[in-house]
Design brief:
With about 675 residues, the protein is mainly alpha-helical. Helices cover about 35% and strands about 5% of the residues. It has 20 helices and 10 strands.
Length: about 675
Amino acid sequence: MLTSNTSKKIMKLNKILYVGVLATGMLATSCEDFLDRAPISSLTPENYYKQESELAAYTTNYYGNVFSAPGGGYNAGPINWDDETDNMVVGGGNTSYFDHQWLVGAGEALDFGFIRVCNYFFQQVLPKYEAGQIQGSPENIKHYIGEMYFMRAMAYFAKLKNYGDFPIITEVLPDDMATLREASKRAPRNEVAKFIISDLEKAESMLKSGADFGKNRIGKELATLVKARVALYEATFLKYHSGTPRVPGEAGWPGADKAYNSGKSFNIASDIDYFLTTAMEASKEIADATTLTPNNGVINPEVGQITGWNEYFEMFSMANPSGLSEVIFWRDYDKGQSILHGWVPYLQEGGNNGMTKSYVDAFLMANGLPIYAANSGYQGDETIDQQKADRDGRLQLFVFGESMLTHNDPGGKGVKTFDAPGFLFMTEHRDLTGFRQRKHYTYDQIQISDGINGTNGFVEYRGAEAYLIYIEASYLKEGKINSTADGYWRALRTRAGVDADYTKTIAATDLTKEPDWAKYSGSTLVDETLYNIRRERRCEFIGEGFRWDDLIRWRAFDGLLPGGEFEGYQPEGVNFWTSMYKHESYYDNGKCNLVEQAPGEGAANISSREVSKYARPYMTVMENNQLWDGLKWQKAHYLAPLGVNDLILTSEDGSIANSVSYQNPYWPTTASEAATE
C-alpha cells in the first residue's frame, strides 16, 4: 500500500513525465482542458481509432503543438522571430539571456505532455493498424500514422535544443514510481538526435507527398527537410561545442556521474560524420526537387498594383503559395472560420522592433563585394535608400527604405511611402533601429484593416533551406565546395541579384571588418569560406526565425563572453545623427520633438549623438536600464536549466545528489540562482 507521501510523489512525477492533453472523439484544445476530462482509465479506446477520419482528426488537433506560425490576436508574429540576436531587437530587450537574470526554477521545467499525446496514439493505433482493424484508405491511414511520427520527432527536437540530453520515452507509463524514475534517465544528446532521425525516417516511409494536401498538411518532403535540419543542427553542435561539458563524453559532462552511463563510449567524430552525411543526403533530395521562386528585381509595385509584381516577394504573403515549387509547407488562414492573423499592420506601421546595422551591413553589393571592399561601390549610409543602393536584392526587397511604398491601395488609404523611421511613434508601433522588416508584407489593404484581418498564407518551410543545409554540411564534411554545392550557391546568389561568383566574395572578405557574431565558433575565427556560407543563411532567412538556433549550434555567442570581441554588445540602427534627424516628421511647427538621451533625462526618445551617430535602442534611457552596458552571455545559456523539482522527484530518497537525472552544465541546483559561468 502506497504511503500518502509516495502517492504525491508519483502524481508529481506523472505530471512531469506524461500528463498532457488526450484527444478523444471530442477533440481536446489545450493542456488546461485535461483537468476537465475523464481519466485515461475511464476512456474506451477500443471504440475509437478505428476510422481513418478519427486518426486524421487526432493529428490535425495537434498541429498547433508543432508549427510556430501564429494565429489571431495583436502580435507581430514572424516579424520578431530574430529577436535576441545580432539581427534584430524587440521591445526593451530580454535581460534573461544577457544580464544574469535567467534563474533556476523551483518547480518542474521538463514537460512530457505532448510526447505522451504521441505515445498514446501509437499505443492505441499501431496494434489496430497491424491487425487491419482501421477502416478507410490504407494510404491515408499510413499517412496519419506518419504524421504522428513527425510530430513526436518535432517534440523531441524542441527538447534537444532546449536541454540537450533528454529521456527517450516511447510508451505511456504506468503510475509506478520505480518505472517513472527509471524513465527519467537522460539519454545523451547524440542518442536523442538519432532517435529523432529514426522517427523522421519512419514518417518518410509512411507519408504521402505534401502536394496531395495542398502543402498545408505534413508531407514526405517536409519530413525529409526536417531530417536534414536536425542532422545539421546536431553535427554542428557536437563539432563546435566539443571540449565543453555540453557534449557527451567530454570532460565535465554531468552524465558521466550516473551509473546508467557507465561503460558507454562516445565517438563524437564518427557521430558528426554520420549527421553530416545524413544532412547532405536528405537536403540534396529536397534541393534537387526544388525550383527557386524567381526574383524579377522589381523592388516596388506600380501605384495601385497589389499583386503580380514580384513573385519572390509575394511568396511570403500569397493567399495560396502551394503552386510554388520552393514551398514545402505553409499555413492557411480563413476569415470564414475566424482563422486570422494580425502581423501585417506591424510591418506597415512599425512594431516596436527593428533590424540591426550589423544585419544590414552583412549584405553584399550586387557585384558580390562586401561594402568595405575597395571599389565596392558602396554609397554610404546617410539615408536607408542610399545604404541599400546597388546591394543584394534581399536587402532591397525585405527592409523598408525612405522611398518604398507602405500603402498602395488607391481605393483604401491611398499611397504612402516610408519617408523616415518612426522613432516617435507610440510604443507598440515604434521603430527601434530605423530598419523595418518588409518580408511577409502585402499591399492588400483588406489584409491590414481592422488589425486582425490577415488571411494571406504563411510559408513556414521552403526548399531554399535545403540548398543552404547542403552547402554547409558538404563543406564541413569535405573541406571544399563541391560541384553540387557550387550549383546551389550560385542559384541562391543569382536569385538574390548578386554576382554568382562567390569566390570573389571570399577573396574580398576581411573578418576583422565583419561585425557578425557568427564569424566565431567559440573563440576561434572561422575561415572566410565558412563565414560566407553563414552570411548566406543570415541574408536569406530574415524574418524566418533561424538566427537564434544558428548562433547556438555554431557556439557563436561565445563572442559575448567576458573578454570576447562582442562583450557588452550594443545593437545599432540607422545613421540618425548625420542628417536623418532633420526630417520634418520629427518636428511640429519648427519645434523638435526629439528628446536626446542625457544623464537624468527620463523622457528621452532617442540615443545621444555623443555616444554614436547610429541609433542605439538600448541606450535611450539610462535609469533602470539593465542593458545600458550592452549584451553579455553566460556559458550556461546554451542549454536551459532543469527545475529543482525535476531533480528531487527523480530521486529515490528525495535528495538531488541521488537523482537519476542531473543539472545542465554551469547551472546550480538551487532555486532562484543564476548560472555560475
